[in-house]
Protein: ATP-binding cassette domain-containing protein
Organism: Micromonospora mangrovi
Amino acid sequence: MSVVLDALAQGYGTTTVIDNLTVTLRPGITALLGPNGAGKTTLLRTLATVMPPRNGVIRIDDIAVDGERSARRVRDRIGYLPQDFGFDPQMTAADFVTYAAWMRGVPSRQWRRAVDEALEMVDLTDRRKSKMRSLSGGMRRRAGIAWAIVGRPRLVLLDEPTVGLDPRQRLQFRKIISGLGDTVVVLSTHLIDDVGAVCDRVIVMHGGAARFDGTVAELEALDREELPGHSPLERAYMHLLPEGEQEL
Ligand SMILES: Nc1ncnc2c1ncn2[C@@H]1O[C@H](COP(=O)(O)OP(=O)(O)OP(=O)(O)O)[C@@H](O)[C@H]1O
């Protein structure tokens, strides 16, 4: 799986959110960091083929995704968990994940196995028959993660997947995504601990551009002791913000 963004521009109406972004995403876990409004969700939605690029090119497995026709060719390779995902509260957890398998073009004879595997990965096997409305917030988010990974799509896009998870569930989440193997995983987060623990690569977005693109160790090397923050990664992140935003 390869995902190439070449001079990508994206926005809403007259607002430009992403401007001239060029990156190649490879198998492994990439974190998108950046302040509120930096464009992380917009980038994930664009990668998920929800919005065609305003300018520039997205190439998924060498297919240029520039409209509905080309998007249809790649959608079954993509698992996308939006920040606020909707569901029918009457659906069981298994139905919810089966719906994703169907949407992703998993053949019906494989649904049962694929759904069982996804629910097992997020530790919801014993809740497979529970209605979505009866699950706790953290369980729903884990069902959402199962939604994104069922059928093993090669590109997995997760928008703030650990919001609402308790500490143990966050550790479980890290285990799940570390076990996805040969998959391009892109997640947005504000939790720098998660980045340090599981991500291979970090892209820090600000002002429509990638202000940093490198490994966690390379980001950590930008640590400046004089900046606010409780860890080298937090201080390195602060260092990447414009000067006016570096104080608290
Ligand atoms: N549907 C929309 N219509 C108009 N503007 C939008 C829309 N969605 C987002 N925006 C604007 O685009 C910019 C980027 O928003 P986006 O949600 O991508 O940021 P983000 O980095 O995901 O933020 P957060 O950390 O708060 O989730 C913001 O200025 C936002 O107000």
User: Anything to note?
Assistant: The chain has one domain: 3-239. The first helix runs from residue 40 to 47. The first strand starts at residue 3 and ends at 12. Residues 12, 15, 17, 34, 36-42 surround adenosine-5'-triphosphate (CB under 6 Å).
